[in-house]
Amino acid sequence: MTYRQAWRRWDVDCLLVTTDPGALVTARAVADQVMDAADDAISSFQPGSEIRRLRPGWNDISPVLAGFLRAALEAARTTDGAVDPTLGHEVRAWREGRPHLVDRAGSWRDVRLDGWRLHLPAGMLLDLGATGKAYAADLIARRTAQETGAGVLVGLGGDLASAGRGPARGWQVTVQDTSHDVPATVTLHDGWSVATSSTQRRRVDDGDPRSHHVLDPETGMPASTRWRTATVVARRCSTANAAATAAIVKDATAPTWLTRHGYDARLVEQSGLTLTLGGFPADLAVAS
């Protein structure tokens, strides 16, 4: 038997599921702590957040910001730059309804992170929205399992992370982007995660499918892609999220790239046709 709690924050549906009813209180407290700390460190909406106070050159930063940024830079490295945390100006332009490529001061390769010290080129603006929820889900799941000894599944929007010993049959996760799509059930074993990136959910113009939020670092525009949804399973939610987002950006080359890196994935074309790779959607993550 499992026990759950749901709420909304960060404009997404949030979910906690545990194997012990007594762990829910701790899990929610951990979730609130992690999300509060993330708001203070990486929010692009709060004028006083740490990321908005960064200046060109060297900055002393908090361990919280360093952790989120390290995850974002790892996502950039593992996706060959398809997920880039230096698109702050482009993300801002997208939110204002005028997406375009800004004269950029560099890319993720120009960001220097040394412990809790960060160096930024002049004119660079960071945005960790593409990776922040997945990294937060990883943190919440791991800390809850450590503090309670229970199995836990954490969902923040399309990013789901698990930790601890889960149900005997694994965590049963339904993957469905829109109400018109045929759902797929994914079985996650202990410590595995699943993430979905979609062009259907967040748009600046609901009537324009090209106004979605997944930006191509090469153009600064919403990615021109054959995929409307990408779902990936991995050990860490941050890894799954990066691969799913990269698949949207990589367009026709995504299946080859995902297969080469050994990911189990599900890609849905704009027409609704579905392509599955690896073991998806069977028992993807066999307990080691």
Describe this structure in words.
With 288 residues, this protein is an alpha+beta fold. The chain has a domain of 129 residues: ApbE-like domains (T-fold). 30% of the residues lie in helices and 24% in strands. The chain contains six helices and 13 strands. The strands form three sheets. An eight-stranded antiparallel sheet has the order 1-2-6-7-10-11-12-13. Strands 3-5-4 form a three-stranded antiparallel sheet, covered by helices on one side. β6 and β7 form a beta hairpin. α2 packs across α5 and α5 runs antiparallel to α6. The longest helix has 20 residues. It is globular. The C terminus is likely disordered.
Can you give me a brief rundown of this structure?
The chain is α+β, with helices and mostly antiparallel strands. It is 30% helix and 24% strand. It has helices at 23-42, 63-78, 88-95, 129-148, 237-250, 254-260; strands spanning 3-9, 12-18, 57-60, 112-114, 117-120, 152-156, 159-163, 171-175, 184-188, 193-198, 227-234, 264-269, 274-277.
